């Protein structure tokens, strides 16, 4: 039995999460995985219903679950309310309370998307990298925070143990990949980055088989575009990871293709990295593939089922190769909506798995 908390959120969140849930239910029906779903509110819709973005009932649901599947939160509707009640605060509270300190963000090139990317095909073909972002520390959580009319303060704080555990996650992940870790910091300027680099150098001694590279974040931002195929595992702090992973989305031509898994010692949180896109909410045209690929990560990391995870990822590539795409992906072929894309992925995933059985 696997308890899955469904937090669909705002904007396109409910539409794309519905396709991820549909895939999970199809897999459950065919492979008896024992999924139990419980849905509750988070973000702006929770503000509307309960007066706060992360109600205690929502947090309780998440803590009872084995895994959490999250959509997106926020939108212009809630931009004018006080900061503590903003939908985005729910994300910070959820991550902190679940203790999911390691955010895994794979960036894998799908061959049908070469024409959708603004980067030359010869640069991006074969890209397969993972950004490991520290998720529960840094400037997003540092105290004190202060604001008056003419002054604002945010504090960037990292403890050694926070850096040690995320760096270990990155090195361990690299062992199952190409054994190359790029640590990203700003050690020429920031004291927190100097501590970061010191810890990375210490940890690297336990992984002599892993090649280690250190880059300043501004240089890394350039190199991800210039030579993305050179990267394997990138490990970095919270804000840098947030920015770099969005930039890496340009490699695939759409943020609608980027999944993520947030892992801790006890809990796991899965969410696509895109926002709530309120301008297209309710139109049935949102790209569900980031959520579907996020489901693949759920199958890989929480269920430890590589067969199912790989089948979902291969299904995504196969469907794209057939020319099916949502409006955000500019390739030749047939443009389809959210639900149709979900249908195609479910059918293709089951077809692949049926072939594996024979």
Oligomer type: single chain
End-to-end separation: 27 Å
**What does the average pLDDT come to?**
95
CATH topology of the largest domain: Isopropylmalate Dehydrogenase
Secondary-structure arrangement, i.e. CATH architecture of the largest domain: 3-Layer(aba) Sandwich
Write down the domain tally. Answer: 2
Query: Which runs of at least 5 residues are low in confidence (pLDDT < 50)?
Result: none
**H and E order:** EHEHHEHEHEEEHEHEHEHEEHHEEH
Number of strands: 14
**Quick one: CATH class of the largest domain?**
Alpha Beta
Specify the biggest β-sheet: 10 strands, mixed
CATH superfamily of the largest domain: Isopropylmalate Dehydrogenase
Q: What would you call the structural class?
A: alpha/beta
Task: Determine the fraction of residues in helical runs and give it as a percent range.
Answer: 40-55%
Shape: globular
What Rg, in angstroms, do the CA atoms define? 20 Å
């Amino acid at each position: 039995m696997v308890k899955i908390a469904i937090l669909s959120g705002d904007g396109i969140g409910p539409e794309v999460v519905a396709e991820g849930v549909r895939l999970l239910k199809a897999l459950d029906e065919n492979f008896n995985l024992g999924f139990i779903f419980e849905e509750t509110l988070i973000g702006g819709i929770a503000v509307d219903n309960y007066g706060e973005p992360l109600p205690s009932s929502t947090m309780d649901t998440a803590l009872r679950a084995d895994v959490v599947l999250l959509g997106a939160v926020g939108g212009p509707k809630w931009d004018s309310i006080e900061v503590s009640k903003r939908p985005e605060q729910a994300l910070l509270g959820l991550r902190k309370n679940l203790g999911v300190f390691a955010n895994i963000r794979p960036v894998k090139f799908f061959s049908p998307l070469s024409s959708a990317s603004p980067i030359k095909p010869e640069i991006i073909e074969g890209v397969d990298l993972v950004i490991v972002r520290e998720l529960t520390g840094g400037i997003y959580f540092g105290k004190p925070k202060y604001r008056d009319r003419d002054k604002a303060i945010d504090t960037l704080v990292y403890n050694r143990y926070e850096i040690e555990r995320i760096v270990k996650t990155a090195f361990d992940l690299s062992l199952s990949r190409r054994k190359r870790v790029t640590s990203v910091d700003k050690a020429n300027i920031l004291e927190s980055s100097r501590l970061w680099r010191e810890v990375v150098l210490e940890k690297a001694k336990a992984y002599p088989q892993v090649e280690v590279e250190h880059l300043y974040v501004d240089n890394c931002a350039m190199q991800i575009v210039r030579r993305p195929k050179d990267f394997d595992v990138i490990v970095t702090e919270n804000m840098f990871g947030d920015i770099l992973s969005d930039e890496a989305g340009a490699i695939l031509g759409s943020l609608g293709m980027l999944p993520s898994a947030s892992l801790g010692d006890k809990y796991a949180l899965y969410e696509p990295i895109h926002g709530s896109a309120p301008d297209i909410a309710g139109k049935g045209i949102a790209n569900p593939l980031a959520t579907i690929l996020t489901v693949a990560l759920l199958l890989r990391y929480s269920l430890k089922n590589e067969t199912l995870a790989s089948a979902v990822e291969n299904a995504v590539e196969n469907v794209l190769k057939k020319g099916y795409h949502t409006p955000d992906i500019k390739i030749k072929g047939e443009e389809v909506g959210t639900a149709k894309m979900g249908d195609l992925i479910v059918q293709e995933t089951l077809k692949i798995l049926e072939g594996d059985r024979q």
